[in-house]
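Dear colleagues,

As part of the handover before I leave the project, I'm documenting each prediction I ran so the next person doesn't have to rerun anything. This entry is a single chain, and its sequence is reproduced below.
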Amino acid sequence: MSSPQVLSVLRKAARPSGAAAAIFAPATSEIFSGRAVALRAARQPASRSLHSANIRPVAVICHPQNGPRSTCKRTFASTAAARDNASKLDRTALHDFHVANGGNMVAFGGYSMPLSYSSATPLASHKHVRSAAGLFDVGHMVQHHFSGPGAGAFLELLTPSSLQSGLPEFGSTLSVLLNEQGGILDDTVITKQKDGKFYVVTNAGRRQEDLAWFRKQLEKWKAAGKPEVKHEVLSDHGLIALQGPQAALTLKKHVSGVDLSTLTFGRSAFATVAGIEGCHIARGGYTGEDGFEISIPSPSTTVAVTEALAADPAVELAGLAARDSLRLEAGMCLYGHDLDESVSPIEGALAWVVSKDRREKADFLGAERVLRELKDGPQRRRVGFVVEGPPAREGAQIYDEAGAEVIGRITSGIPSPTLGKNIAMGLIKNGHHKKDTKVQVEVRKSLRPAQVARMPFVPTKFYRGTQ
């Protein structure tokens, strides 16, 4: 994620060879709500855009909250209808830039976003990020400031992470917004810019739910006479992600005001990028590679910074398709699929976001369930799988090795471009979650052998500083 962030999955039609990639939806962490709507682009030559090609997109509407197996409805739309729908979507500051550069635009989280670009297939984009550097538009994510004497305590009410004493200035952490029952409302990245001021990024597909939740909790906070908290949505700010082993070398050519060698994973700083002052640079991302997420203070300056970085010979533009396949290889969650309001951080393999001091205080929403599951274990756990045969997709049922009992369901699955294997993520009954446990997964009405695998599937390469 900026993780974050999550989401509905868009998939470009592809062959089982691994040339296809599912889409992000952020990390991190993409990537959308239980009622998220995703579009799958029908098969088309890489050189033709979604709107210029004579294709019929498929809208896939999933409702994972309806039960252990998400139900999906598919509808078909003409190209004209797709264009009409596209006109109703929000646009990031880079929309015209994407179109001018051959972006295959699709509906995603209420925005018109590039699935891929005519210059490269999703597979090529994926591999370029792993070997050089890819540039992503993540401006659909929701950026917030929480400030005031009560800001830290307020955010610690909503999350189980230690934000006031646990984070240094310009330190960041992945966390989760919890409801009263301990379920995950959204995953988020929180940066403490200074005491009493926090920069928060949440998922586009949860925009309305998150904003309503913040309003409700702020009203209760104020009514209780708690210290003042101001909430601002940074609606004019752009957000881009530069990811890959050459990301630092590329950004170094364009940045002043910060020494990137001192900016380790999870740290951030304000700096000037491509002549634009006031950019917030955070080291991290949703691909598992070294990289940066850059918040830029206005629409016009977002275009200027993006054009400067995209002109570097090491950089290629990358879209949602590559973003999703990269995040799944890195074992990162997609909200609305791997996580939803029924999943606790313990079930979601995110126990590490529940800080030690917060466990002792038990003063966050949903603490009763979270602490109980930490002590006694959850009913199910999020784990990774390697699946033989055709790839397992979301909603596929997981059986025990004998094929006698349903013990879980797949939440995300793709052919891994890096590994050449079919990988997946899913929620499985506690006790069957240990590495190398053999199971069977229902794919195309047949049971296929699979086994639990350690995540990340591809080792992460976050920059921790020079050795």
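The chain has a mean pLDDT of 85. Residues 1-377 form a domain with the Gyrase A; domain 2 fold (CATH 3.30.1360.120).

All the best with the project,
I.
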